Amino acid sequence: AVFEPRALNELFPDWQQRGAPLKTPAGRDAFYFLTKTFGIRLPTPPSMHNHGNYIISLGEFGKWLGVQAENLGVEIFAGFGASELLYDANDTVIGVATNDVGLNKKGEASDRFTPGVEIHARHVVLAEGCHGSLSKKLIAKFNLRKNADPQTYGLGVKEIWEIPSENHKKGLILHSIGWPMNAQTYGGGWLYHYGDNLVSIGFVVGLDYTNPSLSPFEEMQRFKTHPSIQKHLLGGRRISYGARALSEGGLQSLPHLTVKGALMIGDTAGFLNVPKIKGNHTAMKSGMLAAEALVDHLKSSDPHAECTAYTQKFKDSWVYTELHTVRNIRPGFHKGLLFGLINAALETYIFRGKAPWTLKNHADYAATKPKKDQQPIVYPKPDGKLTFDRLSSVFLSNTNHDEHQPGHLVLRDPSKAIAVNYDIYNSPETKYCPAGVYEIVHDAPDGGPRLQINAQNCVHCKTCDIKDPTQNIDWVTPEGGGGPRYTGM
After folding, report:
1. Are strands 29-34 and 173-178 parallel, antiparallel or unpaired?
2. Which of 40-54, 96-110, 255-269 has the lowest average pLDDT?
3. Which among 318, 320, 333, 326 is positioned nearest to 348, based on CA atoms?
4. Quick one: pLDDT at residue 481?
5. How many whole angstroms separate alpha carbon 278 and alpha carbon 193?
6. CB atoms within 10 A of CB 121
7. How does pLDDT run across 101-111, given as a tens digit for each residue?
């Protein structure tokens, strides 16, 4: 990630003395518009200037923060999944429950069964990242989006490469728009040179795309073949892979942030700054604001009451100002690339975030059109050197789930898998999933198609829970400790 240290400077002014792993200062910024065969260098937008920032491994930084927290007395329980929010008789959140471990595929206790436990708290802070499974239920239960736009999302697919030293330009930060996306589909790529001959490369596709045959994973593979991009990777080797959805709706898609006994921070709420392509600094600051609000709140006569001070602190903070300034840029691309670029220029250089209107966001799943209305996309086969298939990619994510546990990807109505998704939309879940989890096989008793769910491949990106056309797929918490184990990410 390219990390803006603003919140870190406030939290730990002495982070350098503490050994924070911010090792690669941001160097030259480059911003390109790509056609199929060449790249046009454009002026770098002010929001994407990275002077003073750092290229980091977020995994390393998270570990370092964990150590700082433990040194302050915080207890961290790794390997457990919080699978359920706990409520009292008045619908006040009073804690969480971890899931049962050691169930077989039928949900029955095996010889290694261990029941989940309840963890009670005076206040629960939900920091699950984008589209958290508990937050999703909380938002629905209390209709916390009733005064907000639908959240809109992107799917980021990322690889880490080790490249020859002669190709390495430490600190280079490159972003792109245009190819391989068409003019109606939001997306863009990045390439960061950092560390010892390492390159982070990836591509984000807005999940409000219309064509059900589009595959963000395959678009990422195509992106690497562009002449302006592949020259950075030639002679190198891919060493890591991952994928994750990210919240792109910004200010107008934020839910009501608090309920009795709980509040939401970070990308759980949706504090990502899309034009900056950064959300780590706003996530950290939102956690700090929550902590400041809760210090006083927990001293009150009813610590389970709604912590309204947190919302006010957010509105008074630089996080709100930052998100308000850029609120119209992402929704401007709902009308296509050209309109989006013109709108972004007006917002950035003319209105400077003070336009007297706020553009709307829409639900991504509703944008998907039937297969009969869209041209199928045929992707080239991987060459095994620059481009790869999904299963070899998942291998590099170190993903692991106990294959005997109940599936954590649940169909609300199994009949829709064929009657709706296959017949009408050509099974888009088999395209948008970056891990090959969903597969159509033809071994049904009647000889027809059947959806097979290879849950052990899941990298927990949450895309299926977001993009399914009828919202028929639920991502639920698997056994604790399962999922990807990213290295260097």
Report:
1. parallel
2. 96-110
3. 326
4. 74
5. 17
6. 15
7. 888 888 898 88
User: Identity (one letter) of the amino acid at 437?
Assistant: V
By the 10 Å C-beta count (0-12 exposed, 13-18 middle, 19+ buried), 453 is classed as: buried
Nearest to 129 by CA among 262, 270, 255, 2: 270
Nearest of 91, 88, 115 to residue 101 by alpha carbon: 115
Q: What distance separates the 2 farthest-apart alpha carbons in the chain?
A: 67
Residue 324 contacts residue 251 (beta carbons within 8 Å):
yes
Which pLDDT tens digit goes with each residue over 355-387? 999 999 999 999 999 999 999 999 999 999 999
The per-residue b/e assignment along 403-429, b for 16 or more CB within 10 angstroms, e otherwise, is: eebbbbbebeeeebbbebbbebbbbbb
Say what the pTM is. 0.96
pLDDT of 183-211, one tens digit each?
Answer: 999 999 999 999 999 999 999 999 999 99
- In tens, the pLDDT along 125-184 reads 999 999 999 999 999 999 999 999 999 999 999 999 999 999 999 999 999 999 999 999
Check the CA dihedral 13-17-21-25 and report its sign: positive
Give bridge partners of residue 410 from the DSSP assignment.
474
CA atoms within 13 A on the CB side of 147: 3
What distance lies between CA 482 and its chain's CA centroid? Answer: 18
Under a CB-based contact definition with an 8 Å cutoff, are residues 387 and 223 in contact? no
Could you read off the pLDDT of 2-12 as tens digits, one per residue? 999 999 999 99
3-state secondary structure the chain: CEECCHHHHHHCCCCCCCCCCCCEECCCEEEEEECCCCEEEECCCHHHCCCCCEECCHHHHHHHHHHHHHHCCCCCCCCCCEEEEEECCCCCEEEEEECCEEECCCCCEEEEEECCCEEECCCEEECCCCCCHHHHHHHHHCCCCCCCCCCCEEEEEEEEEECCHHHCCCCCEEEEEECCCCCCCCEEEEEEEECCCEEEEEEEEECCCCCCCCCHHHHHHHHHCCHHHHHHHCCCEEEEEEEEEEECCCHHHCCCCEEECEEECHHHHCCCECCCCECHHHHHHHHHHHHHHHHHHCCCCCCCCECHHHHHHHHCCHHHHHHHHCCCHHHHHHHCHHHHHHHHHHHHHHHCCCCCCCCCCCCCHHHCCCHHHCCCCCCCCCCCCCCCCHHHHHHHCCCECCCCCCCCEEECCCCHHHHHHHHHHCCCHHHHCCCCCEEEECCCCCCCCEEEECHHHCCCCCHHHHHCCCCCEEECCCCCCCECCCCCC
Q: Phi then psi for 324, rounded to 5 degrees? A: -65, -40
Token output for 378: 């045929």
The number of CA neighbours under 13 Å toward the Cβ of 365 is: 16
